[in-house]
Each structure stands twice: as structure tokens, then as C-alpha cells.
């Protein structure tokens, strides 16, 4: 009986265990294979995250782990590559009871980014894998040796002017004589950049880089071309075909007159007119042709129905669709000066006051990096604001109702310099010797760099075109650019457009609007030649006085 009861109980239990939906017995989870982990990193004895700038060419990298490392697994699981993926050689060793791998690269190249990678295949002595891979960025420093023999400061200034002059002389368009937009522009010539180039040629003739006869012949070629090139109510387009003189659209609707670029061109032509002042037939004819071109610009028409502001663009297809009034503070002061100085299509002072100065709204008055800024946006904006107009206009001692322009130009430049020296965004390479934010090429693009738009790119034209404002700081920059970076930054036409030590990038480009101010402003610093010529023009004196400017050069 007892056995029978036990048998029934077993059968009952079996029936319950076989019911649908019953929970199976729990299964133990799979056990993860054991791993070890990263503990510490030192590069040349310090820890600074996983990115290191300004390293010597043989830095010592020590990576410490939670377990001793198998020496045989280091090969193939620790790699060092440059930005192109090429392997760099190194030696490795173990220390700290084999918990620390010491990686010492062979001689690395300067201003180059390397990536040190540790893969999970790096095994501990017990055969365990590394929990997570590690990547360390190593950026080497500038090679501090001089790249060229030292010469005197005056010789260096002359060398920079002479080499940069080649952009406009040797690389000038063969048919038109005008300046190509950049060193890869083919037949595309730039009206504004050509104005800068004309001033540069005057400086070049004055310094005997070419003869006066050669300079005159080039100017005759330029003026003959401009007399037949496309114009729109007297204004030239931003870009022209250097062979045909036909407009090349800067953008879809920007295919007509560009008044600001035209003003840069006119300032250059007036400067050349004042320089080529001989009584002979050739120079007399050149001056007459320049007067005809300047007097044909319908500055007042660009007020758009007699409004109290000038407009930047007009298109024969799109009329005023660009709708960009020229308001200060920016690079366009010269536009209002050339318009007010016109003997034929002048503008009244009200257009300057209400349009450009916005009845005083362009004033600033705040201080940045210890310097008070009279005009413009916070921190001053890109430095070309203080270059383009002042290639011809001498700001020294110049003032009107809105500012003292000597104070303005110097303040803006010092703010730019002090910002780069302070380097609030911690870009590698910025210093009292390496400074200057303005419009330039950047990696994969172009931007107007400034303290408010800082992408880590320095443009030599920013500091070098500021010589009249900050001679000491500009000379520091020039010597650094030439002697320390010259093997990467100095080319056939002077300094390349821009560079970033932080990104290990150097432009291969040269641009007319950046090369021109370097020559011209260095010349103004040395002799005031271009300032004196432009400011000697009787129309300019009259126009600026009509706008209520005052100063020793008026």
C-alpha cells in the first residue's frame, strides 16, 4: 500500500511538470572571458587627455594597464600612423612589473599629426584581452631652426615686397594685365584685387623691381582693357574674363556692377594717375584715360532711386535683387570716399551720414582685451576692415564726426593681436609671434576669420598688412612666418594665403586681395608712398572735406 501511494504521488508530480507553459529550470548565463583594462597615460611625463600638441620629434609615451602585459603581443597590436595612414617606426619596452608599455617613436616630422592605437588584441600575461582599444593623438611642434639665412629687417621687408610683387607682375593676366583672382583662376581676373595690384605695381616701380617704362606699359595695357570691358552704369563686375572683358558671374544674381570692388579699382587707378605725372604724351594720355574711366562710374545711380545709402550690386537681369546696402563699419569706407569725390556722379554728405554711418549706429566704444574700439562690431571683426580702404586713405591723424581713424585702425589691430596672444580657444600655435585673423582660405573652404569667428587659421596678410598700425607686433609675425615656417609658408609669390598649426594645414593658394595689401601697407609703413599719392588727388581732398573729414593730409 505504501509503495502504491508513492507511485501515485510521483505520477501526479510528473503530470504537473508536463503542463503547457510551465517554466523551465533556470540556466546560468554565459561567463564573459576575463579582460583587463587601461589605467594611466603619460606623454613626456604628463597626462593631458588623449590629444597632445607641440611635441618634440621623439616623445615618450607610457601606457599603464591593470595587468602585466605579454611582450610577444605588442607587435601588431600597437601601431603609430600619420594623417595619411602611413606607419611610423617606434621601439617599445615594458616596465613597472610589465604593467606599463613604453612607446618611443623614431624621429617624427614637425607639424604632423600621428595616431597611436592600442588594439584589444594586446594580451596580458594570463592571455586576457584588453577591454577597450585606446587611441592617442600626437601632434609634433614647429621645427624651431631658421629655414633661411638671417638678413636685416629692412632687407626682409624688401624681399617680401619683391617676392609678393611677382603675383601681380609675373602672374598678371597676359591679355588684360589685371590680377587673377587667385593662383588657380585661369582667365578669371578680379576688379578689386586689380586695384590693389595697381597700387602694388606703383610700389614696385618706385623700388625698381621693374622700370618706370615697364610699369607704364603695363598700366597702358590695363587701362586699354578696362576701356572696353563690361560695365554696368559705370561700375565693373567683381570678376571679368581676362581675355574678353566679359562679366563672369560671382554668383547667380551677382552678374552686374559691384560698387565696392569698383571703388577698390578706382582707388588704384587714381594712385597710378598721381604717380605717372610726366609731361610726355604717353603719361598724359594714361592720366586722361584714367579720368575718363573714373568719371564714368555712376556712383549716385547706385543710391537706388536717390535713397540715402549706396547699394553694393546691380544686375541687368536681376536689378536690385541682391539688396545689399553698403553700411559701416566694414571695408567699404573707400566706396563712399570715391563716390563723394566723383566730379560727375557725386553723392551728398547725407548719404554718407545716413547710409554708411547710420547716423552714428556704427559706433562701438566698448573695450576688448584692454583696448577701446571706436567703431564696428564686437572685437572688431576681420582685419581686412582696416586694410582695404586704408591702402589709399591715410588714417593717421584723420577724423570725422564718428571716429579718429588712427585710433580705430590701431585699436582694431591690437584687439586682434591680443586675442590671438590670449588664445581663448586654445588653438595650438597662436602666440605673440603667430597672429592675424582675417578673410582667407581655410581647410576645404573660405571664411572671414575674426575673434568672433575663429576656426584656428592664421592669414599672413592680417599681420603684415598691419605694419603701419602695429610695427613691432607685425615684425614679430613676419620673422616667425619667414624664418620658422618659411619652408612651408613661403613660395613663388611670397607667403601662401593661410595656415593652421592646430590642424597641421598650409594653404597652397595665393589671392590677389591678400597679396596686394601686404606690399602696399608695408610700403605705406616704410615711405607712405601710396598714401601720399592717393591723398594728393584733388578730387579726393574735395570729396573727403565735403564729408567733413579733417586731418593733416587734407
Automatic annotation (TrEMBL):
Keywords from the UniProt entry: Signal
Domain Glycoamylase-like: 324-537
Gene3D superfamilies: 1.50.10.140
InterPro entries xrefs: Glycoamylase-like_cons_dom, SbsA_Ig, TonB_box_CS
Annotated ranges, domain SbsA Ig-like: 61-134
Tagged with keyword Protein biosynthesis: no
Signal peptide feature range: 1-20
PROSITE patterns: PROKAR_LIPOPROTEIN, TONB_DEPENDENT_REC_1
Protein name, per record: Glucoamylase family protein
Amino acid at each position: 500500500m505504501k509503495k502504491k501511494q508513492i507511485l501515485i504521488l510521483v505520477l501526479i508530480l510528473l503530470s504537473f511538470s508536463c503542463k503547457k507553459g510551465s517554466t523551465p529550470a533556470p540556466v546560468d548565463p554565459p561567463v564573459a572571458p576575463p579582460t583587463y583594462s587601461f589605467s594611466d597615460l603619460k606623454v613626456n611625463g604628463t597626462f593631458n587627455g588623449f590629444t597632445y600638441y607641440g611635441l618634440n620629434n621623439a616623445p615618450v609615451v607610457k601606457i599603464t594597464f591593470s595587468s602585466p602585459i605579454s611582450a610577444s603581443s605588442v607587435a601588431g597590436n600597437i601601431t603609430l600612423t600619420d594623417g595619411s595612414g602611413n606607419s611610423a617606426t617606434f621601439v617599445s619596452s615594458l616596465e613597472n612589473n610589465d604593467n606599463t608599455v613604453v612607446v618611443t617613436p623614431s624621429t617624427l616630422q614637425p607639424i604632423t599629426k600621428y595616431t597611436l592605437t592600442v588594439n584589444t588584441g594586446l594580451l596580458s600575461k594570463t592571455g586576457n584581452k584588453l577591454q577597450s582599444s585606446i587611441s592617442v593623438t600626437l601632434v609634433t611642434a614647429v621645427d624651431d631652426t631658421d629655414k633661411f639665412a638671417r638678413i636685416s629687417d629692412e632687407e626682409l621687408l624688401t624681399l617680401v615686397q619683391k617676392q609678393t610683387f611677382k603675383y601681380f607682375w609675373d602672374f598678371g593676366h597676359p591679355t588684360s594685365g589685371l590680377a587673377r583672382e587667385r593662383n588657380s583662376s585661369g582667365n578669371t581676373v578680379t576688379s578689386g584685387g586689380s586695384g590693389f595690384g595697381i597700387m602694388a605695381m606703383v610700389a614696385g616701380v618706385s623700388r625698381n623691381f621693374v622700370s618706370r617704362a615697364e610699369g607704364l606699359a603695363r598700366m597702358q595695357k590695363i587701362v586699354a582693357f578696362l576701356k572696353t570691358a563690361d560695365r554696368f552704369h559705370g561700375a565693373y563686375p567683381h570678376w571679368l574674363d581676362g581675355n574678353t572683358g566679359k562679366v563672369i558671374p560671382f554668383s547667380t544674381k551677382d552678374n552686374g556692377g559691384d560698387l565696392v570692388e569698383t571703388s577698390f579699382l578706382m582707388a588704384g587707378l587714381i594712385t597710378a594717375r598721381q604717380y605717372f605725372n610726366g609731361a610726355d604724351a604717353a603719361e598724359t594720355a594714361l592720366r586722361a584715360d584714367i579720368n575718363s574711366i573714373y568719371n564714368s562710374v555712376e556712383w549716385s545711380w547706385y543710391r537706388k532711386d536717390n535713397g540715402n545709402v549706396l547699394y553694393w550690386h546691380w544686375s541687368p537681369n536681376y536689378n536690385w535683387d541682391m539688396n545689399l546696402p553698403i553700411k559701416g563699419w566694414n571695408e567699404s569706407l573707400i566706396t563712399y570716399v570715391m563716390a563723394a569725390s566723383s566730379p560727375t556722379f557725386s553723392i551728398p554728405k547725407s548719404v554718407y551720414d545716413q547710409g554708411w554711418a547710420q547716423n552714428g549706429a556704427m559706433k562701438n566704444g566698448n573695450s576688448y582685451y584692454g583696448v577701446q574700439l571706436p567703431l564696428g562690431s564686437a572685437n572688431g571683426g576681420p582685419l581686412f576692415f582696416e586694410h582695404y580702404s586704408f591702402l589709399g586713405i591715410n588714417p593717421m591723424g584723420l577724423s570725422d564726426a564718428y571716429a579718429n581713424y588712427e585710433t580705430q585702425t590701431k585699436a582694431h589691430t591690437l584687439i586682434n593681436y591680443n586675442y590671438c596672444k590670449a588664445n581663448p580657444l586654445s588653438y595650438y600655435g597662436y602666440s605673440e609671434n603667430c597672429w592675424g585673423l582675417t578673410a582667407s582660405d581655410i581647410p576645404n573652404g573660405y571664411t572671414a576669420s575674426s575673434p568672433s569667428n575663429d576656426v584656428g587659421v592664421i592669414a599672413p596678410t592680417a599681420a603684415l598688412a598691419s605694419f603701419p598700425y602695429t610695427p613691432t607686433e607685425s615684425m614679430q609675425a613676419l620673422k616667425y612666418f619667414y624664418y620658422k615656417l618659411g619652408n612651408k609658408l613661403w613660395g613663388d609669390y611670397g607667403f601662401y594665403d593661410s595656415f593652421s598649426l592646430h590642424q597641421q594645414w598650409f594653404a597652397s593658394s595665393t589671392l590677389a586681395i591678400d597679396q596686394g595689401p601686404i606690399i602696399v601697407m608695408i610700403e605705406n609703413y616704410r615711405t607712405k608712398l601710396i598714401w601720399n599719392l592717393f591723398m594728393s588727388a584733388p578730387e579726393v581732398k574735395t570729396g573727403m572735406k565735403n564729408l567733413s573729414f579733417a586731418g593733416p593730409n587734407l
